[in-house]
Amino acid sequence: MQFLVYGFTSILTSTATATAVLHYAAALSQSSLSDVVSVPAIDLFGMPITVGIVLGPGIAVLAQDAPDDELETEHDDFVDEVTARTRAVQSGQRHSV
């Protein structure tokens, strides 16, 4: 598990999700693009939620380790989608949301 730190907020999510978001944020920044991403996360009570964030140049986002959770959900569909978006940005293609 990792916290995605965005502005003054920490978003608890899976390690795979946090990694995918960081890679996408870097690709967008390098290409002077931005996008809105709905990140699967866990709220303070352990319930699944979705958090919408804007990624792009000049918007800081970082990942910080969180306590491991044996029930961590990998969010495979989200990771696959964001990875595809990252590849599209890196290859100079526009990816429709």
List keywords for this structure.
97 residues; 3-stranded antiparallel beta sheet; two-stranded antiparallel ribbon; globular
Number of helices: 2
The assigned structural class equals alpha+beta
What's the helix-strand series?
Answer: EEHEEEH
* Helicity level: 25-40%
Notes on the protein architecture:
There is one protein chain. The longest helix is centred in the first third of the chain and has 16 residues, at about 15-30. The strands form two sheets. A three-stranded antiparallel sheet has the order 2-1-5, covered by helices on one side. The chain has one domain. The chain is of the alpha+beta class and about 100 residues long. A hairpin with a 2-residue loop joins strand 1 (about 1-5) and strand 2 (about 10-15). The mean pLDDT is about 90. It has two helices and five strands.
Helix and strand arrangement:
Blueprint (H helix, E strand, L loop, with lengths): L1 E5 L2 E5 L1 H16 L4 E8 L5 E8 L5 E5 L10 H15 L7
Structure summary:
The chain has two helices and five strands; from the N terminus they run ββαβββα.
